[in-house]
From TrEMBL:
Molecular function terms from GO: ATP binding; phosphorelay sensor kinase activity
Localization per record: Cell membrane
Keywords annotated in UniProt: ATP-binding, Cell membrane, Kinase, Membrane, Nucleotide-binding, Phosphoprotein, Transferase, Transmembrane, Transmembrane helix, Two-component regulatory system
Bilayer topology term: Multi-pass membrane protein
Source organism (scientific name): Caminicella sporogenes DSM 14501
Entry protein name: histidine kinase
InterPro entries linked to this entry: Cache_WalK, HAMP_dom, HATPase_C_sf, HATPase_dom, His_kinase_dom, HisK_dim/P_dom, HisK_dim/P_sf, HssS/ArlS-like
Domain Histidine kinase: 260-477
All copies of domain HAMP, residue ranges: 200-252
Transmembrane segments: 19-37, 180-199
């Protein structure tokens, strides 16, 4: 049963489908060619035979037209006999000569002499029509009857009747067809072999791809298939390899993200646990210490909330059908609003924020989201600038974009960290960031919001000198929307 199933599976595989299709095509072509050749050979040979028999009959007829009228003369009778006998041997056919009444004068087989021949062809010949017809006679097989009138001085005086076997011709054709069949069989074997090799070339890479896809379905994303060439299948292989590379990256990012999230959530949670436990296990705790501990727990809960809010923002931004709430907005006022909201933070560190508006600019944007980005970038500038520092926020534009430049005189970002600051959870100084309450998600959210507006964000920084962020937003980004 298993074997039958396996064989069935094999036979319906692409390889066998291709091989059987090729074989069927070749078989059909060969059958058509063979039957066409055999038919046209038959027609040609028979026609040739017919023509030659008619020609021979005409020759005999003209040669005998002189002797027939004198049949009662012995010499003439002998002559006719001799001519007929010789020709009968030459033509390998039976020749009969009849008089005008259809009575056989001479029969090369010496059987029917003196008897009347009753035959359609002869009847036609005796009224002046030369005819040739093919018959199948049970005893002799295929034969051709040819009858031609014998005339003398314009008068029909008798007929030549030839009966010739066609079996030789059919035997010949059969022989030739046999050779053709052998050749056809040979070409079928060769076709079978070539198509098998060809089918193998096509199906092997597909089988490899299938195997790789199956392994991927088990969660092993590091699959690569080795496919050379430049046809559709190898292109499919290349696309597959590209897809697995991408999937691997996505899977890695997902794992890192989950690990980071768990780590980030666990830190405040364990602080809360330690604080709560130490309160539970201590007896007679002063109210002051209680309050202090609860304040710490409260700030850890805040931190947890901030992380969760940021994560929800990120998930929100990644939604496929996310629609931005575009509104025509004066960017000047939006920046002003953000600066005002952050001023108390800056004041605490005695940091001065200068706002340089080079022009009044109005564009379409999602106010809430851009505000969220600006709060993070300007907030970072305040967070990472020591006391008494300065921050310069500048708004200007070129022909097709507006630029918001945020420069601080803060701690700067080491060169090797710059490429990663937009990554999720990336913080240059982790210990310090914890103190300042950073989650490392701000810039990642900012970058996504700006990208959704078809803009971009760039950074320049020097350690201990300061950092400058440039936010580019296209002037026409939202006009078409
Ligand atoms: N203006 C800046 N000066 C110096 N370092 C900066 C500045 N802005 C960002 N960074 C560095 O880039 C890191 C990533 O910034 P990001 O805003 O994503 O996170 P965060 O500020 O630490 O936390 P969050 O914004 O989520 O509260 C920061 O931790 C900091 O190390
Ligand atoms: Mg930040």
């Amino acid at each position: 049963m298993v074997i039958i199933l396996e064989i069935r599976n094999k036979f319906i595989s692409l390889r066998w489908k291709l091989v059987s299709t090729y074989l069927l095509l070749v078989l059909l072509t060969l059958l058509l060619i063979n039957s066409f050749i055999s038919e046209s050979m038959k027609v040609n040979y028979i026609n040739e035979k017919k023509m030659s028999l008619l020609a021979q009959s005409s020759i005999i007829s003209s040669r005998l037209s002189y002797y027939i009228p004198q049949v009662n003369i012995k010499y003439a009778n002998n002559m006719v006999h001799n001519i007929v006998k010789d020709l009968s041997e030459d033509l390998n056919s039976r020749i009969m000569i009849t008089d005008i009444n259809g009575k056989v004068i001479v029969d090369s087989f010496n059987i029917l002499e003196g008897q009347r021949l009753n035959n359609e062809e002869l009847a036609l010949a005796l009224i002046g029509k030369s005819t040739a017809e093919q018959y199948i006679i049970p005893k002799y097989g295929r034969v051709m009857y040819v009858a031609v009138p014998i005339t003398n001085k314009g008068r029909i005086i008798g007929a030549v009747f030839i009966s010739s076997s066609l079996e030789d011709i059919y035997k010949n054709i059969k022989e030739i067809m046999k050779k053709f069949m052998i050749l056809s069989l040979l070409s079928m074997v060769i076709t079978g072999f070539i198509s098998f090799v060809f089918a193998d070339i096509i199906s092997t890479p597909i089988e490899r791809l299938t195997e790789a896809v199956k392994r991927m379905a088990q969660g092993k994303f590091n699959q690569k298939v080795e496919i050379s060439g430049n046809d559709e299948i190898s292109n499919l292989g290349k696309a597959f390899n590209l897809m697995t590379t991408k999937l691997e990256q996505v899977d890695k990012q997902r794992r890192e993200f989950v690990a980071n999230v768990s780590h980030e959530l666990r830190t405040p949670l364990s602080s809360i646990k330690i604080l709560a436990e130490s309160l539970i296990h201590q007896e007679k705790v002063e109210e002051k210490i209680y309050k202090e501990f609860l304040k710490d727990i409260d700030s850890e809960v805040d931190r947890l909330n901030r992380i969760i809010d940021s994560l929800l923002s990120l998930v929100d931004l990644e939604k496929e059908n996310l629609n931005l709430d575009y509104q025509i907005t004066y960017v000047n006022y939006l920046i002003e609003k953000v600066i005002n909201s952050l001023k108390p933070l800056a004041d605490k560190k005695n940091i001065k924020i200068y706002y340089i508006e080079r022009e009044k600019i109005q564009i379409m944007l999602d106010q809430f989201k851009i505000q969220q980005s600006l709060i993070n970038v300007i907030g970072n500038a305040i967070k990472y600038t020591p006391e008494n520092g300065e921050i310069f926020v500048e708004l200007y534009s070129n022909s097709d974009e507006i630029i918001i430049k945020v420069r601080d005189t803060g701690i700067g970002i080491p060169e090797e960290d710059i490429p990663f600051i937009f990554d999720r959870f990336y913080r240059v100084d982790k210990a310090r960031a914890r103190k300042t309450g950073g989650t490392g998600l701000g810039l990642s959210i900012t970058q996504q919001i700006i990208a959704l507006h078809q803009g971009r964000i760039e950074v320049e920084s020097r350690i201990n000198e300061g950092t400058t962020f440039y936010i580019f937003l296209p002037k026409k980004a939202a006009v078409n929307i």
